[in-house]
Amino acid sequence: MRSAIKIMNEIKGVRIAGTDAEKNAANKIVRFLGKKGVKAKKEFFPMLVSDTGDGIIKVKNVIVKGIPYGLTVPYKINGKLICIDSISEVMNLSNKNKNAIILTRERPKMSQFKKLKKIGIKGIITIVRFDGNISSQHLSQHMIKDRSVIPMMDISFDDAIKLRYQTGQKIIMTGNGKTFKTKATNIIVNMKGKKKTNETFIVVGHYDTVPYSPGAADNGGGIGVITEMIEYFHKNPVKRNLIFIMFSGEEWGLWGSRHYCNKHKKELKNIIGGLNVDVAGDVLGVNRGIITGNKRLMHTVRDIADFNGFPITVSEDIYSSDNMSFAHNGIPFLNICRAGGKPSVFIHTKNDKMSYIDEESFEDIVNFVIMFTEKIGNAERNIIERKIDDNMKKKISEYFKKKGTDSEQVTNNLPYLKKNK
Ligand SMILES: [Zn+2]
């Protein structure tokens, strides 16, 4: 059995940042690498997480269960149920809808949320998925920071249909989730280069999961890929430094990578570029490369893939993962994922599990990232331009704004909860 599968089996199961399960997984990863002769160190950082608990909606004799959004507070509210077809209709709601609870298919963006708060909407029920699964979502950090939480819950599509027939009725919505401050763990492996030690290439992927999800494809798969890379480069060092990081807190708003970028500001100057692996393991999937950086890197990745017969579609765009924290700091990133079948369609649900993962899916992708990193690491002159294209810069700042996550880095004092009391 290849290492990717072995490590995935070891850490499988829900591992929410900052919980005992996450610490357990971190220890297992460190031990696994230790057995291969690789020294990994742990770095801790503060963040907010929630025990999301259970959500219940009652109306007349209909009872529906859901998952409260993360970064939440306990609530019991009631209000008139209104259904809106599309979240963009939020802009048409008015003060007349004060105290209502809305049912909508998509989760609101930060600007829409602000409008709902202003009107005085009491609660929001979303149906993020149509396949019977309930999605594990979280509120934005700004909602906590600004003391502007609206109780939110995700429910299944079938239950949403039941509720649809109760439009106009008074419903009761209860959630017992709570948010607290915790310490989460990043795992770091530093490999010094043989020659060009003032240049570093960084490889990252997160190992934490959302509540309720065993996180096989997202992102046990990425951890599997990175583990095999670490083993390879431990035996076959390159000219430049390599840093491998398995981040925590990604699922709640890139906390681990934002903290790393803040704490290691000086070292960032030497980082020429990076690779992020988030979502892998689908046998019947497609390989995608998304560049958060510059066009030249996009062409470089395409050429290397083409010359080596590796099937992959490469585009330039944002990718909602730890690469964003680095791109915000001017470091271009290649994001690699393999998705499109089971289990990647089930990410952020209880069905993102190991039984859908296949060993074979790792063969090509691992070979490619090793070959790519080796080329970058050993090139006589640096082939990555350390530049973020202007259009990408704009997209990156919009991304953080839309998400309601500070692009500012995480520091050791989190004022959020204190203010929230
Ligand atoms: Zn992920």
Q: Summed up, what is this model?
A:
By secondary structure, the protein is α/β, with parallel strands linked by helices. It has helices spanning 3-11, 20-35, 110-119, 141-145, 157-164, 216-235, 255-263, 265-268, 295-307, 323-328, 361-378, 390-403, 416-420, and strands at 41-51, 55-59, 62-68, 75-84, 101-104, 123-126, 152-154, 170-175, 178-191, 196-206, 240-247, 271-277, 286-292, 313-316, 333-339.
List the helices and strands and how they pair.
Elements: H1 3-11, H2 20-35, E1 41-51, E2 55-59, E3 62-68, E4 75-84, E5 101-104, H3 110-119, E6 123-126, H4 141-145, E7 152-154, H5 157-164, E8 170-175, E9 178-191, E10 196-206, H6 216-235, E11 240-247, H7 255-263, H8 265-268, E12 271-277, E13 286-292, H9 295-307, E14 313-316, H10 323-328, E15 333-339, H11 361-378, H12 390-403, H13 416-420
Parallel strand pairs: 4-5, 5-6, 6-7, 10-11, 10-12, 12-15, 13-14
Antiparallel strand pairs: 1-9, 2-3, 2-8, 3-7, 4-8, 9-11, 13-15
Bound molecules: zinc ion.
Which tags fit this structure?
about 425 residues; 13 helices; Aminopeptidase; alpha/beta; seven-stranded mixed barrel; eight-stranded mixed β-sheet; single chain; about 35% helix; Glucose Oxidase, domain 1; binds zinc ion; 15 strands; 2 domains
Describe this structure in words.
The chain is 33% helix and 26% strand. It has 421 residues and is α/β, with parallel strands linked by helices. It folds into two domains: 3-50 and 181-403, Zn peptidases (Aminopeptidase), CATH 3.40.630; 53-176, Glucose Oxidase, domain 1 (3-Layer(bba) Sandwich), CATH 3.50.30. The strands form two sheets. It has an eight-stranded mixed sheet with strand order 1-9-11-10-12-15-13-14, with helices on both faces. A seven-stranded mixed barrel has the order 2-3-7-6-5-4-8. β6 (123-126), α4 (141-145) and β7 form a beta-alpha-beta unit. The N and C termini lie far apart (51 Å). The model has no long low-confidence stretch (mean pLDDT 93). The protein binds zinc ion (ZN). The site of zinc ion (ZN) has 7 residues, from α6. The site of zinc ion has 7 residues, from α6.
